[in-house]
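User: What would this chain look like folded?
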Amino acid sequence: MNPLYINTPLIPSRPLSQHLGKEVLLKMELLQPSGSFKNRGIGHYCLKAARDGIRNFVSASGGNAGLAVAYSGRELGIPVTVVIPETTPSFMKAKITAEGAEVIVHGKNLNEATLFAQKLVEEKSGLFISPYDHPAIWDGHASIVHEIARTGKKPGAIILSVGGGGLLCGVVQGLHEVGWKDVPVITVETEGAASFAASMREDRLVTLDSISTVATSLGLRRVTDQAFHYSKTHAIHPFVVSDKEAVDAAFRFMDEQKYMLEPACAVCLVPIYKKEPLLQQFSSIHVILCGGNVVTLELLQKWKNEPLT
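Assistant: Here's the prediction, encoded as structure tokens.
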């Protein structure tokens, strides 16, 4: 067992099951120590690197990944530097700093922050911890499926959100490792950040010109190559939803189940709330509630009141 993440419960959702007319179970990754599934992949990568003698971690993040690296570094006694773009909310900077990491604000977007962070690696004699694009990260995320398998509850289908594709890679890898190659995955993105759906539609890796979404944790212009590879070898059904649908889902879930979700996590609930016809063919639905910290009640209310599309 990796000490940098916890086994999370798989719980039935009565409201969602009644709404959809079939069993819906929630994998509660929002309960991880840093508040998101990032603890798994990043924790696995950081622990492996520490055992290999790495003594400094560098990351670039808009929030959740940087927080997971900072948490991992503090637990392992390894210094961490996180580069965040100017668009990162001040409360996220404070959370990362509270974990003991050095936080540097640089760049107008995550791409610019990442380039700067990669230049710091040599200066600090450290290791760049990607938020999503490394086999060790996928290994860590695969543990989600192994935990589900130990419950004996085989999913009819799994719903998850896609940003850079690290969670998708880990889940598909895990499905293959436990012998569940026949379990399809339903991916969900917002319209302003739907690089994976675009790649599947055009049958090539698509790099978006820009990102425009309140679900900022999904804001990668291109998914990892491995995610696109899995779209060729595993049954994956992409869905794209609006920002408004994501925010409305977050409010509805908070009202029904008393958990506050980032829009980047709440997107997974939209196909259920919309009773998408595709879902009716599956015996049960497992939703990976990936969690996330880039949200406050004030922000949700602000988005609710904006004219989102």
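The chain has a mean pLDDT of 92. If you want, I can go into more detail on any region.
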